[in-house]
Specification:
This protein is of the alpha/beta class and 442 residues long. The chain is 31% helix and 25% strand. β18, α9 and β19 form a beta-alpha-beta unit. The protein is globular.
Length: 442
């Protein structure tokens, strides 16, 4: 007989020796994407991982639209919770099947996400998160069971939610700070978790500050005319000289453009003079451009466009364009992220030159060209040598807490140490944000 325990709690009693059959899930619930990773608890080995679009997006692409949908409406709240729990059960089935693991052997789950996603997974009304002073219903770490959430793991599996900082700065920011050991050294470091509800964490062992940088879903391909997530056929790399040249994921026929491709495209168009620092597509000055590039800059009705691909180019089955509104959506997104970094430095009384390292986090952040990110001002003007990719650090932090209870206890300490900065409440924020929306001049 094998008895599986968690602390003093008995999770399962099984016939025979199943002592080695101990698995766990790290779940990163983002506004746009959800990532679930299966680990072997003894060794920490990653066995399988799956990423999907958050199915709640049909009720709104950003946090505020989802909060508005659920606001003081138990029926709509239940719809949002049912959608996300349904996806998590699909993920559980998929990763277990890929790894040849029985779901009943999954005994621990660690969940991270921003404040709103955290509440919606638990079925907690997020209404007050969307109203000043933007207070979460609960902030502390929570442990419940899979049975209570209707997750299809071992019924008594422990589902651990990491603590929230404040406002929209959630457990994902805590996980990023934990994974990157921001509280452990003397160097001043900044982690930028790029996503729909982006978050910025700044500091060292002396002090940690964090803010929400609500970029919206544009950088993940949403709200862009021909945008898509980073999947097969997405344009992920673009160069611009006397023409536009693209690369697609899997070198497949082009279906649309994802965030990294969008950032490359804008950087190239800025360098070529197709877009000016205010973001305006220069239709009136197109005659000064090389012939092939000139022919791509068009005015259709009242809309300024850049033709990225024509039907048949790179296997595209339709024309793929960048519109003036697409440019504006990216400006809003990158303005939110860059101003978040600048504001935290401002609040800390520090200058950009004081920053020793800028870390790009998030599954999407890993694929961005640093040169392009700097060119469009997605991140403030630091030396490229100071910029480092850290991958999906929120998921990594969840994985650390999955395999180590000491790390989970440390996460609570990190959450308590982080000072929340409310950007909207700061008198300088509006001007800093407006300035950050413009593209850097060459």
């Amino acid at each position: 007989v094998t008895v599986t325990t968690f602390g003093r709690r008995i999770l399962a009693v099984e016939r025979g020796d199943t002592a080695l059959m101990k698995f766990g899930l790290a779940v990163d619930v983002g506004t746009t994407s959800v990532v679930t990773t299966l680990l072997e608890l003894e060794s920490g080995e990653q066995l399988a991982s799956v990423s999907s679009l958050n199915p709640q997006a049909v009720f709104g692409g950003d946090l505020m639209s989802r909060i508005a949908f659920a606001q003081f409406n138990p029926v709509n709240l239940r719809k949002l919770t049912t959608r996300i729990l349904g996806l998590l059960n699909q993920h559980i089935e998929q990763v277990c099947r890929e790894a040849g693991v029985l779901p009943k052997w999954v005994y621990k789950v660690v969940v991270v996400g921003n404040t709103c996603m955290h509440h919606l997974v638990l079925g907690i009304d997020p209404s007050h998160v969307g109203l000043a002073p933007y207070a979460p219903v609960m902030r502390h770490a929570l442990v419940t069971t899979a049975r209570e959430l209707h997750l299809k793991t071992a019924p008594e599996a422990q589902v651990c939610f990491l603590p929230i900082v404040a406002g929209f700065v959630g457990a994902d920011a805590v996980a990023v700070a934990l994974a990157t050991r921001m509280d452990a050294g003397d160097r001043l470091r900044c982690a930028v978790d790029i996503g729909t509800n982006g978050e910025v964490v700044l500091g060292s062992r002396a002090r940690l500050l964090a803010c929400s940088a609500p970029a919206g879903p544009a950088l993940e391909g949403a709200q862009i005319r021909h945008g898509m997530r980073g999947a097969l056929g997405a344009i992920d790399r673009v160069t611009v000289d006397d023409d536009v040249h693209v690369h697609t994921i899997g070198e497949a026929a082009a279906l649309g453009i994802c965030g990294s491709g969008l950032i490359d495209l804008l950087a190239g168009l800025l360098d070529a003079g197709v877009i000016d620092p205010t973001g305006l597509i220069q239709v009136d000055q197109r005659d000064a451009l090389p012939g092939k590039l000139r022919d791509r800059v068009v005015m259709r009705g009242e809309e300024r466009q850049v033709i990225v691909l024509r039907p048949g180019d790179h296997g595209a089955g339709r024309e793929i364009v960048l519109t003036q509104d697409d440019v504006r959506q990216v400006q809003l997104a990158k303005g939110a992220i860059a101003s978040g970094v600048i504001m935290l430095l401002h609040v800390a009384g520090l200058a950009l030159d004081d920053l020793d390292e800028l870390m790009l986090a998030g599954g999407f952040g890993n694929y961005i060209s640093i040169a392009s990110a700097l060119r469009i001002g997605l991140i403030p003007p630091v030396s490229p040598a100071k910029v480092r990719y850290v991958g999906n650090a929120a998921s990594l932090g969840a994985q650390l807490c999955l395999v180590s209870e000491a790390e989970r206890a440390h996460a609570a300490e990190v959450a308590r140490a982080i000072e929340h900065v409310s950007l909207a409440a700061h008198p300088d924020f509006e001007q800093i944000f407006v300035d950050a929306m413009n593209f850097p001049a060459r």
